[in-house]
């Protein structure tokens, strides 16, 4: 009886993962917007957990490499959240049309790529956190203003043609 309980515990994660994968596959064929939202929410949760983990362990870190990346992914997650809410069909930002979500997605990927390139260089010396926070907040605000207020962010989607090169 004891071995049967141990076998069940050992395979519970696999069974749960298989059920979750099957549900997500059915969701993607049934309603793409729901599937897309679930996938984006999962990545936002991962970014938030990464931030919480590095923020709460920052006193124990020898260098600030992971701290910088955790903070950067927090801001990328915020852009991903607005991207998810701005996806066409969600109905939250209908005045912006179908170009809003791809623009926000590209802006979030630029933030991630830039921070992944800067992180090794930034780790060579002790940096002050508040100017970095200000820079990341400034980037997010500049992107949101460029896309949602001034309309100067490059178009990423054209109706009838699809994504732009």
3D architecture notes:
The structure is a single chain. The protein has helices at 2-30, 32-56, 65-85, 100-122, 129-149, and strands at 157-158, 162-163. The chain has 165 residues and is mainly alpha-helical. Strand 1 (157-158) and strand 2 (162-163) form a beta hairpin. Helix 3 runs antiparallel to helix 4 (100-122).
List the secondary-structure elements in sequence, H or E: HHHHHEE
Task: Flag low-confidence runs.
Answer: none
Shape: flat
The termini sit apart by: 61 Å
Indicate the mean pLDDT. 89
Instruction: Give me the number of helical elements.
Output: 5
Structural class assignment: mainly alpha
Give the amount of beta strand, in percent: under 5%
Number of strands: 2
Kindly state the percentage of residues in helix: over 70%
Largest sheet: 2 strands, antiparallel
Radius of gyration: 20 Å
Strand ordering within the main sheet: 1-2
């Amino acid at each position: 009886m004891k071995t049967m309980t141990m076998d069940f515990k050992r395979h519970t994660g696999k069974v749960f993962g298989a059920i979750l994968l099957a549900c997500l596959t059915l969701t993607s064929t049934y309603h793409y917007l729901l599937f897309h939202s679930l996938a984006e929410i999962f990545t936002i949760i991962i970014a938030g957990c990464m931030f919480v983990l590095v923020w709460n362990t920052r006193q124990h870190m020898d260098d600030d490499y992971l701290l910088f990346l955790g903070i950067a992914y927090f801001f990328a997650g915020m852009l991903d959240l607005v991207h998810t809410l701005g996806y066409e069909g969600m109905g939250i930002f209908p005045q912006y049309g179908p170009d809003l979500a791809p623009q926000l997605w590209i802006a979030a990927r630029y933030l991630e790529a830039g921070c992944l390139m800067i992180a090794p260089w930034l780790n060579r010396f002790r940096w002050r956190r508040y100017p970095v926070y200000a820079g990341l907040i400034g980037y997010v605000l500049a992107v949101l203003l460029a896309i949602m207020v001034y309309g100067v962010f490059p178009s990423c989607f054209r109706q009838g043609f699809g994504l732009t090169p």
